[in-house]
Design brief:
Blueprint lengths: L1 H23 L12 H19 L10 H14 L1 H4 L8 H4 L11 H4 L5 H13 L15 H13 L5 H8 L4 H4 L7 E2 L6 E2 L2
Antiparallel strand pairs: 1-2
Helix pairs in contact: 2-7, 3-8, 7-8
């Protein structure tokens, strides 16, 4: 009985101690300061295990389809490149100020983990749900699953792209302009003369 009371007392003291430290304000939460190795390992393990558990039943579509890869490029450029970089860019003002540092998706060693089924599931889950207190937003609030899978497909191919290929795959084409019909008359001159098509 004394042993059990001793354990309960130790747990109580630990909880009170943690509460006192947290509420005192002595913990530096600035993004320009690194966590201690123990805290970093704890948070990294919690994040990794949480994402793996939450994503394990997600069904992965065919991410090798060319149209899947190409449709994810423009969204990646608009929403991801500022943190996760692009070919030829080693840092941005935004990525330099984040802690923990976001993964560099132009690096083949980083992206290698997303080539597996589990990696694709986890990448999709993170894009959709985000990660608390990391700067990674939950894009599922504004994007459907097809768009997020397209981003996963694009990320998997990103390390293989050069600057020109990246530019080509990430240029957003305005569908309104592409759908314009030029079968009528257009006034292209100041004097009102018409151009026939």
């Amino acid at each position: 009985m004394k042993f059990l009371l001793g354990i309960l007392f130790a747990v109580f003291v630990a909880i009170v101690g943690v509460f006192a430290v947290v509420t005192s304000g002595v913990i530096n939460i600035g993004a320009d300061q690194a966590h201690s190795p123990l805290v970093y390992k704890f948070l990294e393990t919690a994040r990794t295990r949480s994402v793996a558990n939450a994503s394990k039943d997600i069904i992965v579509p065919d991410l090798e389809k060319v149209d899947m890869i190409s449709t994810g490029g423009a969204d990646y450029k608009d929403m991801c490149a500022g943190c996760h970089l692009s070919p030829g860019v080693e840092s941005t003002d935004f990525s330099a100020g984040l802690y923990p540092k976001p993964p560099n998706f132009t690096n083949a060693d980083v992206v290698k983990r997303y080539q597996t089924k589990a990696g694709a599931q986890q990448g999709f889950w993170v894009i959709k749900h985000g990660i608390m207190a990391s700067g990674m937003p939950a894009w599922g609030a504004s994007h459907d699953d097809d768009r997020m899978w397209a981003m996963v497909a694009f990320i998997r191919s990103l390390p293989e792209l050069n600057d020109a290929q990246y530019t080509m795959l990430t240029t957003r084409i305005d569908t309104d302009i592409m759908d314009m019909s030029f079968d009528g008359n257009m006034d292209m001159s100041e004097d009102g003369s018409e151009m026939q098509h």
